[in-house]
């Protein structure tokens, strides 16, 4: 993926971290492609645990609307012509790749991380996390309020119904719905 630095991030974009840090240091890790449209009201911040290695790479003509939160300590790649609706949350501590022409509706949660919980004698918040990369291929539509969990691959041309919880891979050209999400129909791909 080749990304250029000709697009802009509006000056009022909120880049927030747990510890105070110069804007220029954080800004070096946000790469925006040509004609990008990033809202002035998004929040990009590091995950509260671990190093600050958060890197956000946006392709050409990517649109991210108001009140989207991007949080983590790893790399997020959003390819050309993709869209993220208001109030969505992306938590990236392993790796998340979003393909070309992907539509992500409002209030979607995409997280490559889970909390550990097996040790009943220790509070869950102190048990650490597990991570596994997420891959969303080209031409995917993710409906309002859907949840995409760690380790999932969503195949090209798939549709994720509103409020679905995706816990397993979605085959190419599938329409999935439910909790947990299951294939309810196949699309005919050209």
UniProtKB/TrEMBL annotation:
Keywords: Acyltransferase, Repeat, Transferase. GO terms for molecular function: acyltransferase activity. PROSITE patterns: HEXAPEP_TRANSFERASES. It comes from the Bacteria. Gene3D superfamilies: Hexapeptide repeat proteins. InterPro entries: Hexapep (IPR001451), Hexapep_transf_CS (IPR018357), Hexapeptide_acetyltransf (IPR051159), Trimer_LpxA-like_sf (IPR011004). PANTHER family: LIPOPOLYSACCHARIDE BIOSYNTHESIS O-ACETYL TRANSFERASE WBBJ-RELATED (PTHR23416:SF78), SIALIC ACID SYNTHASE-RELATED (PTHR23416). This is Acyltransferase. It comes from Neptunitalea chrysea.
């Amino acid at each position: 993926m080749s990304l250029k630095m000709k697009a802009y991030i509006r000056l009022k974009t909120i880049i927030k971290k747990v510890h105070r840090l110069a804007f220029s240091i954080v800004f070096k890790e946000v790469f925006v492609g040509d004609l990008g449209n990033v809202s002035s009201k998004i929040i990009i911040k590091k995950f509260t645990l671990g190093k600050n290695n958060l890197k956000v790479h946006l392709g050409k003509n990517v649109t991210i609307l108001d009140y989207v939160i991007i949080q983590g300590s790893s790399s997020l790649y959003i390819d050309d012509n993709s869209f993220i609706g208001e109030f969505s949350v992306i938590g990236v501590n392993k790796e998340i790749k979003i393909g070309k022409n992907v539509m992500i509706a409002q209030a979607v949660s995409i997280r490559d991380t889970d909390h550990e919980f097996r040790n009943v004698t220790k509070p869950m918040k102190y048990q650490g996390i597990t991570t596994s990369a997420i891959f969303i291929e080209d031409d995917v539509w993710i409906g309002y309020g859907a949840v995409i969990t760690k380790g999932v691959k969503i195949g090209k041309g798939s549709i994720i119904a509103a409020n679905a919880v995706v816990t397993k891979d979605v085959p190419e050209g599938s329409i999935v719905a439910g909790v947990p999400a299951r294939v309810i129909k196949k699309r005919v791909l050209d």
